[in-house]
Amino acid sequence: MQQDGIYFGPKDKPGTAFCVLFLQANSDSSTAELAGALAQLWQLYEKLKQGLVPDLAGITVPAGELTVLFGYGLNVFKRTDLAFPAPRALRDYGAFRSANTAGGGPLLPGSGLSYAPYISKNKCSEDMVVQFIGNSELAVNRALVETWKFLEDTARETGRAAPVSIAAFFKGFQRDDGRSWIDFHDGVSNLKSEEREGVISIKPSNDPQEAWLDGGTYMAYMRIAVDIAAWRSIIPSKQEEIVGRAKLSGCPLVSASDLGGAVAVAGCPFTGTTQIGDLNNENFRETPVQVDARISQSHVQRANHHQQPLDDPSSARIYRQGFEFLEATEQAPGFRLGLNFVSFQDTPQRLNRILTQPSWLGGTNFGGAENGQNTVPGMSSLLAVIGAGMFLVPPRESDGSFPGAKLFGR
Ligand code: HEM
Question: Where are the domains of the chain?
């Protein structure tokens, strides 16, 4: 059974506030000490979900529908005394490249996505990820601060560094307009609820060393900054061609030309409606299979080749659950914005395929024609990666232990 925090069921809706925390294991701590700290953290989070805060004995506070998810990155598997080796899929497809020490550098061989020039260290490739989602900013902020309090107390009580430390955290929020910072609709086409489990759940393998993974999933995380000034300098009809959807209505496109602009799927939006999310537009949400050569290069067409069956990794379908962000910067315009890209899949190979294969997103930064990456100003660096990581998300433990306890022989 999947952990909480993956909103893949029918009518499941993620909370409005998101925070991911990257934990680094202390190399001086033994594996038993690490497992002990994770068990205690899990207990702490179970209490927070009930509105119980350690420093407020006897008091209950609003819990904000907090969910907590644990994931493990390749780094943790460098320990030689774990109960199982790194899962093969994580070993083969679970590592992003490091950022260049001077900043920037490609995310993966074959991908047009790069680290931002101001990023010289990827802080998201640590041993562990903890994802907090809640219905209030406070719920996720509190979970983060209570984590720090616990680590601080542990260090004071033992007189040495706690078994894990906080390497980085990032925040995000849900939008209620169904759109993204680039103004286009997002999340319109994102697997029907009945298709999601087949896409995300790790299937039983013949390898007994991997049996503990069954029913878990892999979480991909990329914090991606969007160059909004560059995007706004592209005329709307060109933006539509690059995304593959009409800007105002969200209707999927079938063709585009310099003379006539973009043409949406016939009948969309339904007469009397204006947007894809309105009633009677349900049949138009999926992107069409038959499109012209220009639209076949768009972001949505590159990211989904309509291959069946979906539970076969070669379909490369993924379940996206992103949260946007806005943060202050010292440089003009004083802010940076973008997407906390989160996807769940039964193997990291799915995402790797989308990001690196030439007819998929491949050499493009976001989408559109590959030569457009150079001819459309700003297009080759529209998106820039701030951090990225891939994590095994083990299934929930039926006895209430922390997810992944089996890895530590518990
Ligand atoms: C900041 C970065 C990104 C932005 C602003 C963005 C925006 C969008 C938009 C506007 C859509 C169309 C709405 C929809 O069909 O749901 C979309 C669809 C999609 N995007 Fe992205 N995207 C970003 C990064 C990525 C990346 C890195 C991937 C890599 C896997 C990706 C994969 C997808 C997929 C699979 C779809 C659905 C295609 C379909 O089935 O129709 N996106 N994105």
Answer: 17-225+318-353+388-408, 245-294
SS3 of 301, please? helix
Q: Would you call the peptide bond into 85 cis, given omega within 30 degrees of 0 as the criterion? A: no
Nearest residue (CA) to ligand 1, atom 9: 186
Which atom, in ligand 1's list, is nearest to the CA of 220?
Answer: 30
pTM over 0.85: yes
193-211 pLDDT, tens digit per residue, is: 899 999 999 999 999 999 9
Alpha carbons 382 and 4: distance in angstroms, whole number: 33
Q: How many Å apart are CA 167 and CA 25, to the nearest integer?
A: 9
Write out pLDDT tens, residues 53-63.
Answer: 999 999 999 99
Mean pLDDT, rounded, of the chain? 96
Token digits of residue 271: 């007469």
Contact 25, 224 (CB under 8 A): no
Q: How far is the CA of 166 from the centre of ligand 1 (A)?
A: 30
Q: How far is the CA of 241 from the centre of ligand 1 (A)?
A: 14
Residues with CB under 6 A from ligand 1: 180, 182, 184-190, 224, 226, 243, 245, 287, 299-300, 303-304, 318, 338-339, 341, 351, 354-355, 361, 383
- Fill in the amino acid letter for 49: K
